[in-house]
Specification:
Strand content: 15-25%
Number of domains: 2
Strand order of the largest sheet: 4-5-6-10-11-12-13-14
Distance between the termini: 51 Å
Number of helices: 15
Largest sheet: 8 strands, parallel, barrel
Number of strands: 16
CATH architecture of the largest domain: Alpha-Beta Barrel
Oligomer: single chain
Structural class: alpha/beta
């Protein structure tokens, strides 16, 4: 395998890297903007994503399998052509959706049987099926199929689940190698990231990291966090796991999180992030600023002629006031959500740019402390 990831420098444990993919080079640390159904919720287009500095878009294997179907996307040339996005795309494996459909699933060695949340029809997904779906989508990076373990879970259950996840990972790798060799495969250079699991049992997490790094995958994710444990527990797990993952591969913390979470995880050696939070919060009028979060629904913004965040270069801040955007929300105009989602995603992408710059300049600790202090001003 040719070298994809280059660790450019470290500042403490914080890593500054460069990840070369078939669809462009990613500067890390990076935040992936979540477009579950090949679109960012809030009427944000792929052209908008370029304007706000998005490097990687993330789409959802389970949801696209159901609608419009991965086979339909393949017939249309793959996800990049389908959504008109020529930069990297990561597709998750469907494992987290299986976790969230707890009342509708049965987990067995071969895979998972569950019912569609759309029409109730029975669906089976195992490692091979997940790889086949993601190959049809032709994403840049495919995630291995795993079980996201609920927290808390018994040690006995976690041990058995992690062992099964490892067996599934080996099946994923074998199937991806096969798919990438087929002449009809759209993206024959599709990459595979494995996922570390183990709930909050540190020794299980470490043993699993040591086991999966032997497979020499393109990258490694820490999964099963931000699902019920405290922030402190999450940071402790990251501290334990990262030293046991390869230093020459990107490390991805799945589904995390708040700007504060990102700063802390970067400080512990994480490279990739994703979360629905900025878009979801934006759709409800909650926006991020240099001085912390604000809610534009609040009455105090009715006559506020300032932009959302003074000094911000996003399309919303350059053109509209807090008062106007608040009015749009009250009037239930779609433009309100579009503007606030654009702003929040710009904020996240800009934050990652500043993080990379701070690591480059050997001042990440100071940068982190100043940001946390500014965001927590009352």
């Amino acid at each position: 395998m040719s070298k994809r990831y280059t660790l450019l420098k470290k500042d403490g444990k914080a890593r500054r890297g460069r990840f070369v993919t078939p669809h462009g080079t990613v500067e890390t640390p990076v935040f992936m903007n979540v477009g579950t159904l090949a679109a960012i919720k809030g009427a944000v287009s792929s052209m908008d994503l370029k304007d706000i500095g998005c490097q990687v878009e993330l789409s959802n294997t389970y949801h696209l399998h159901l609608r419009p179907s991965d086979k339909t996307v393949a017939k249309l040339g793959g996800l990049h052509k389908f959504m008109n996005w020529d930069r990297p795309i990561l597709t998750d494996s469907g494992g987290f959706q299986v976790f969230s459909l707890a009342s509708m699933r049965k987990i067995k060695e071969e895979g998972v049987y569950f019912n569609s949340h759309i029409d109730g029809r029975k669906i089976f997904m195992g490692p091979e099926e997940s790889m086949q779906i993601q190959s049809n989508l032709a994403s840049t990076i495919a995630m291995a199929f795993d079980e996201c373990i609920p927290i808390p879970s018994t040690r006995e259950y976690v041990e058995k689940s992690v062992e099964r996840t490892t067996r599934w990972l080996k099946r994923c790798k074998k199937e991806m190698d096969r798919l990438n060799s087929l002449p009809e495969t759209i993206n024959k250079e599709q990459m595979l990231f494995g996922i570390n699991q183990g709930a909050t049992f540190k020794d299980i997490r470490v043993a699993h990291a040591e086991e999966i790094k032997k497979l020499d995958l393109d990258g490694y994710a820490i999964g099963g966090l931000a699902v019920g444990e405290t922030h402190e527990e999450m940071y402790e797990i990251i501290d334990e796991v990262v030293p046991h993952l390869p230093e020459d591969k990107p490390i991805y913390l799945m589904g995390v999180g708040t700007p504060e979470n990102i700063l802390e995880a970067v400080d512990r050696g994480v490279d990739f992030f994703d979360c629905v939070l900025p878009a979801r919060n934006g759709r409800h009028g909650q926006v991020f600023t240099a001085n912390g979060k604000i809610n534009l629904m609040n009455a105090k913004f009715e006559f506020d002629t300032r932009p959302i965040d003074e000094g911000c270069g996003c399309p919303a801040c350059k053109n509209y006031t807090r008062a106007y955007i608040r009015h749009l929300f009250k009037a239930k105009e779609m433009l309100a959500m579009r503007l606030t989602v654009l702003h929040n995603l710009y904020f996240y992408n800009k934050l990652m740019e500043e993080i990379r710059e701070a690591i480059d300049n050997d001042c990440y600790k100071e940068f982190k402390e100043k940001k946390l202090k500014d965001w927590n001003k009352k």
